[in-house]
Amino acid sequence: MFHIVSASSVAPSIVLTLLALLTISLVVLLILRFYLPLRTTPAFYLVPIFFALWLPACMVLLVPVDLASGAKTDDEATRGVWLPARVLLVSWRITYWLTFALTWFILPILGEYSDAGYREPKDNVLYSLRANAQYHAMVFGAGLVGLVYLVTSHGLNFASLKTTIMALAYFWGLIFAIYLMGHGLVSIPRRLFRFASISGRLRRLQNHAPKVHERMEDSLLTLEDIEVQISELSRRKVGSARDFQEWIDELTVAALAEAS
After folding, report:
1. Distance between CA atoms of 160 and 147, rounded to whole angstroms?
2. Are 14 and 65 in contact (CB under 8 A)?
3. Which of 21, 104, 128, 204, by CA, is between 20 and 30 Å from 118?
4. Residue 236: inside a domain, yes or no?
């Protein structure tokens, strides 16, 4: 009888949690739709970006649910929305390790991959892995220097090493949180105040219009120069142009389509 009551009492909490997760998913999809063309953006970009936005929002949901689940009350109905301990444990582990993988591996690799200018995906992947390996080598090098300093100053002590690593991890997260929150608390209200005045916004747009027009003219001139270079390369049949002939043909077709 106790198991039946317990299962029936947790069912509304599970339903509300699923509805909250569904709402978060819809909001994240709307944000992605606002900033990205969903139909043309590759899935290997969309899925990690979706989880990069979805997981932090789920953490905001998990914290109060976890606190309510651990509350000591006489009646389970007074807890509010709560979940079984096993469900919370699995949820926190999935959230933590996915966030860890996205932060340190998946998103940096995708960022360098999108910035690479190679034609073949394999070359872009190798460039991305090389750039991230250099970054991690610098981080581990700095950590090794700090470890040597710690050992020479306080000796080889596991407790001091553990506390130092934990302090650095908290310091890293707090610095980013303070910077992002400070920037958001200043930038977002300032933008709202500026956009509230229609006349002031119109004046700012009028001031920026000449600069934007000048940049557009410069971009058109640069585009014309690039189109001339592509047309010259398409006529060459020797040297390095032969190795990249397929790529040059694609650029020629794209340039002709842009010109028409």
Report:
1. 11
2. no
3. 104
4. no
Please, which pLDDT band fits residue 218 given cuts at 50, 70 and 90? very high
User: Mean per-residue pLDDT for 94-104?
Assistant: 92
Closest residue by Cα to residue 201 from 214, 192, 189:
192
* Residues 78, 83, 84, 85, Cα dihedral to 10°: -100
What are the percentages of helix, strand and coil residues in the chain, rounded to 5?
85, 0, 15
Q: Indicate whether 73 belongs to any domain.
A: yes
d(CA 164, CA 151): 12
Q: What are phi and psi of 39, to 5 degrees?
A: -75, -35
> What does the CA dihedral 197, 202, 207, 212 come to, rounded to 10 degrees?
120
Report how far apart, in Å, the C-alpha atoms of 162 and of each of 31, 77, 115 are. 39, 41, 37
Average pLDDT over residues 210-231: 89
- Taking the C-alpha atoms of residue 118 and residue 124, their distance in angstroms, rounded to an integer, is 6
Look at residue 168 and tell me if it is in a domain. Answer: no
pTM over 0.85: no
What is the Cα–Cα distance from 41 to 36, expressed in whole angstroms? 7
Average pLDDT of span 48-68: 92
* Structural domain boundaries, residue 74: 10-116
